[in-house]
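Following up on my earlier message about manganese (II) ion. Here are the inputs again, as you asked, copied directly from the submission form:
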Amino acid sequence: MAGPDALNPVAERLKDDLTELATIRAPESGGWTRTVFSEPYRSARDWVRARMRSAGLDVHADGAGNLIGVLPGRDPSAPALMTGSHTDTVESGGRFDGVVGVLGALEAVRLMRENGIRLERDLLVVDFLGEESNDFGLSCLGSRALAGELTRAHLDRVDHEGVRLGDRYTGFGLDPSAVLGAAGDFTTNGLHRYLELHIEQGPVLEEHGSAIGVVTAIAGIRRLVADFIGRADHAGTTPMTVRRDALAAAAAAVLAVRQEGCGAPVHGVATTSRLDAEPGSPNVVPARVRMQAEMRSVDVGWLSDAQRRLAQKITEQAGEFGVDADLRWSVDNDRVPAHADVQQTITSITDALGIGWEAIPSGATHDAVHIARLCPMGMIFIPSREGRSHCPEEWTELDDILTGVRVHTETLIALDRS
Ligand code: GLV
Ligand code: MN
Ligand code: MN
Ligand code: MN
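Thanks, got it. Here's what our run produced:
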């Protein structure tokens, strides 16, 4: 068995990987942009595939477009260990969200191989397809499909260009029926444990000076698409009292969403992220508005109550503007707890290494939400500078990434034996 220092990640190697992947992005967008189904995303994943191979993994893509690198274990019949994350980004996002979990897992594999550590179980390193929420209001496409949670109805959702999700898959070279059939396709023996390393994307670890966050649960997400239907009229002649201004009703709804988030008792947030107003002419009272919003919390009761309160308030307020509101809610994911045994394994490793940690809920969603349907999961967080994420300023110090990879590597080895 290798001594502890031999399991220290190699800083230059990891830094080079992070730097190289960061060069693959949409040139016309700000920050780091590799949205799902885009050309930069396709190129980035070719790069990831090659990197997986050079780390010594047997690589294949499953029907759902997940890239899976296999490090064979001693016992091919044992349920496999899985790790990974994603390499897609939001529009104008950062360099670390998801990427740290994929490249960190590759470094873990290299460390195991260099130190002659052979796991009992196969280790599957996965770059899940399209984790970020997209125009279809759906996050975690790849892990959702693996868990059998992607449905035919999802494939019929359309984006802002009116294109079906199913057709986006086809355009990316994936067969929609293979996507739906990918569940259970990836291993014959089932999964033993899933572990994901990720940046916190919030301010807590930095504020508290904790190097590691041990995730307790991942927040549930309720999404809302609301259509406000008013009436187009002349903006110069129609008296204020008779207008049916759809955008005014939507503006009131935006504030109601914000107010609900501000009133959340525990970790709870609410965000309106998009308004599309028609006809959008300077001299016409807006006739129709589509609004996109979401609420998140690890408190399931609050989520349900907040949804009920908001639905009532938005409809009532719209009525005061003479506007009809058509609200369509969906659950992107339910709250998912991290498994107690996996949390315990992470904390014992972290304690043994003398690294400071704290237990922390995740407001961001992750592929782990869906893989939790298949086996016990856990997540390791590392600090984000000023809590910034989903923006070009997203940053995590290399030293913090190295600490995360160290804990991640040792936790994988311990989980293999658990
Ligand atoms: C993705 O990062 C999300 O949390 O929505
Ligand atoms: Mn992420
Ligand atoms: Mn993200
Ligand atoms: Mn996420």
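One observation from looking it over: Residues 86, 97-98, 131, 198, 366 surround manganese (II) ion (ligand 2) (CB under 6 Å). Hope that helps, and feel free to reply on this thread.
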